[in-house]
Amino acid sequence: MKLSRTGRPSRGRRLALLATSATALAAFVTPYATAAPAAPQERDRPSVSAHRGPVLDVRQAARAQVDECFKSIGGPRPQPRAGSCPSGFQPKINGAYVWSAARSGDHAYFGTLSNIACNASSTYSGDTTPYLVRNADVCEFGKGAGAGTLGEIYGDARTPQVLRVNADTQKVEDLTPVSDPLLKRTVGLRGAAAHNDVVFLFGQTVNEGQTVGQGLSMFAFEGSTGEFLGSKAYTDLVSARGGVVAADGNLYLAGRAPGVNGGRVLRWTGDKGNPFAFDVVAQLENDPGYLTTFKDRLVASGWGTQVPGERGAVSGGASKVWMSPPIPSAGLTFDGAAAWQPIFSWDQYDPDPVLGKGVAWGALTEWRGELYVGSYNQAAVGAVQTMWKAYGQPKGDTLRKRDMISAARPATVFRISDPGTEKQRTTLLYGEEKLPVYNPNTKRWTSKPNLLGQRPKFGPSGFNGNVGNAYAWTFTVFQDRLYMATFDGTGLITPGSHFTALNNGLSQVAKKNLELVTGPSLKATLGGGEVWRMDDPAKPAVAETLNGFGNRSQHGVRVFLPFEDKGFLYAGMASSWNLRATAKDRGGWELNRLTPGAKRAPLDTRLPKDAREAAAGAGVTGF
User: Fold this and answer.
1) CB-count burial class (<10 Å; 0-12, 13-18, 19+) for 76
2) What is the DSSP letter of 455?
3) Kindly report the CA angle at 380 between 460 and 298, in degrees rounded to 5?
4) What is the pLDDT of residues 584-615, one digit of tens each?
5) Quick one: DSSP state of residue 72?
6) Which residues are registered as beta bridge partners of 471?
7) Fewer CB within 10 Å of terminal CB in the chain, N or C?
8) E strands, 32-185, where?
9) Quick one: pLDDT at residue 209?
10) Share of the chain above pLDDT 90, in %
11) 382-391 helix and 396-407 helix, angle to the nearest 10 degrees
């Protein structure tokens, strides 16, 4: 492996740096749920006082603990004592994500997920060969602690946690109903919602030998006391994410339906005595991911579907942004799919006819009377694997990396004014004037203008051209500011090297380069999830953090949960470094309390030279 005198990869290898970050383990199985969004702001409302640097004071409220001790794959896994492991064993942190969040009164509820890198690797590739990336990550699959209950695909899964935090005292309670048999078959708590003193957390049900997509687990709690109200398994839904309370006072949920493509929107009709009562109010051709309100309507970000075992290729695209009809005072009822209309589609922007079907929509929210929508290159493999499924995969590392680079579609942000009306206008805020397009006849890439014919108003995709920002992960409005968090895959290249090489057909030499050269290099310069803040719709976003609030092993804010009346918001973080129980850049999930008011100097958002060169090779412009 040739290195320059500085220890950086040689020029020939630098072009692959960000491409691999954009394909190394990204977001995998995703979206969220948060509390209902803040009330719409009038379009001419004066801007809050702007500051061009970070304004958030960050305090850690909780973090994933060392819960096992590791020595060898399939070996004994003793419990730590006072956080310490016996001689010869490494401390291990299985808790990876704060995956869902909801507010009920003065309490915040959070659901977690363990060892996402392992679960996603086996789901996408179908391979269950155990592997170890030293001091970073281990996946045991059939030799893991969960294999006896869930089978080898999810042998690294652990029972998810339900945490409740008192927003006044910051006291953290573990409310996990450990004796509930359904919870033992649930791979993470992916979504949450709350209304009328009932809190729901939703998970993905797995029976032994199955993959995700088999069913939905739902758990209900009394919000004010934390009392467990029971659970229910569903087979007519396989995933549920967003939950919002709309202008009519009803709680609505969005979830994926069984089968390959499509999803549903549900209206809650229950109460504490009968919490598991819902009516279907919409059937959509896309899997509805994130759900938000816009004035008197609902808006959902659509996804194509990634079928397990197809390496992340997407079916059912192009992904659309869906808007409901106006919500009557009695609530939405089912009027057929025609009642919900697509207001924007990814293939209205992307000039590549195949990649236009391989990218999904991520976070979205209303801010000051307009709709802000971000994109998601699904699990950072959706676009390139969709292309390879259509045209075939080339031979050798060089051509495969070329395709990975050119197919990368980092987080792209649009603003939609007057959505769903004849006056609708879509503005590209962060994106590309030209995008790489593959020609299957010449087997080459060319650059073509985006189909909107627009130059990005504020900057390149990824906010500053960081190709590792594969996903607009979660948006929220707090104190009249818009906060946008990304999933940044650059810090995951080392623990994700096995999956990236396996899923994309790269050689062992390329795998070692990812693990030992590319991964450490990019983690040191770009690692850690980003948060960007907009104070004024007419001005570019400001970087709040470029390194996971100081922890480069945290690859992003998975959920925001605002407490507007108390002057702070929670940020549930995510990390997949299960063998990094260190003081600096520790792995495992974190829960941070963010309080505006601490004004600091602006961050340097320029990419390092190597990253600029890699991004230029990927066709990313705007520097």
Assistant:
1) exposed
2) -
3) 75
4) 999 999 999 999 999 999 999 998 776 655 54
5) S
6) 376, 487
7) N
8) 56-63, 68-70, 90-92, 95-104, 107-114, 131-133, 137-139, 162-166, 172-174
9) 56
10) 76
11) 120
Higher pLDDT, 11 or 412: 412
User: Phi, psi (5° rounding) for residue 75?
Assistant: -85, -175
Q: Looking at residue 590, what is its pLDDT?
A: 98
Q: What is the pLDDT of residue 250?
A: 98
Separation between Cα atoms, residue 57 and residue 268, nearest integer Å: 37
Is residue 386 classed as helix, strand or coil in its secondary structure? helix
The chain-wide mean pLDDT, for the chain, equals 88
Q: What CA–CA distance (Å, rounded) separates 580 from 92?
A: 7
CA distances (Å), 47 to each of 368, 479, 603, in order?
10, 10, 22
Tokens of 264: 């549903």
Give the confidence band of 6 by pLDDT, cuts at 50, 70, 90.
very low
Neighbours of 202 (CB within 10 A): 28
- Residue 405 to residue 410: CA distance in whole angstroms: 11
Tell me how far CA of residue 159 lies from CA of 66, 156, 457, in angstroms.
15, 10, 45
- Give the bridge partners for 569, in sequence order: 562, 594
DSSP 574: B
Average pLDDT over residues 97-119: 96
The label of the residue with tokens 């008192």 reads 166
20, 397 contact by CB (below 8 A): no
pLDDT at 308: 78
* Rounded to 5°, angle at Cα 344 from 338 and 350: 135
Residue type at 370?
A: E
| Span 12-45, pLDDT tens digits | 343 344 444 444 434 333 332 333 333 333 333 4
Q: What share of the chain is helix, strand, coil (3-state, %, to 5)?
A: 20, 35, 45
Q: Answer for the pair 619, 20: CB distance below 8 angstroms, yes or no.
A: no
E strands of 358-431, at which residues?
Answer: 360-367, 370-376, 413-417, 425-430
The least confident of 12-21, 313-322, 401-410 is: 12-21
Residues making up the chain, counted from first to last: 623
Q: What is the pLDDT of residue 169?
A: 97
With a CB cutoff of 8 Å and minimum separation 6, the contacts of 568 are 593, 594, 595, 596
Cα 532 off chain centre by: 15
Which tokens hold the place of 135?
């001091």
In this prediction the pTM is: 0.92
Cα end-to-end distance, the chain, whole Å? 30
Alpha-carbon torsion, ordered 118, 120, 125, 131, to 10 deg: -10
Q: Can you tell me the mean pLDDT for 139-151?
A: 93
What are the tens digits of pLDDT across the range 554-585? Answer: 999 999 999 999 999 999 999 999 999 999 99
Distance CA 542, CA 462 (A): 13
DSSP state of 13: H
User: CA distances (Å), 232 to each of 179, 237, 251, 277, in order?
Assistant: 14, 12, 18, 11
DSSP for residue 370: E
The angle formed by the CA atoms of residues 162, 164 and 166, to the nearest 5 degrees, is: 175
Which residues 6+ apart lie within 8 Å of 134 measured at CB?
579
Q: How many CB atoms lie within 10 A of CB 11?
A: 11
Residues 6+ apart with CB under 8 A from 320: 285, 286, 302, 342, 343, 344, 345, 346, 361
Any idea which residue has 């993905």 for tokens? Answer: 204
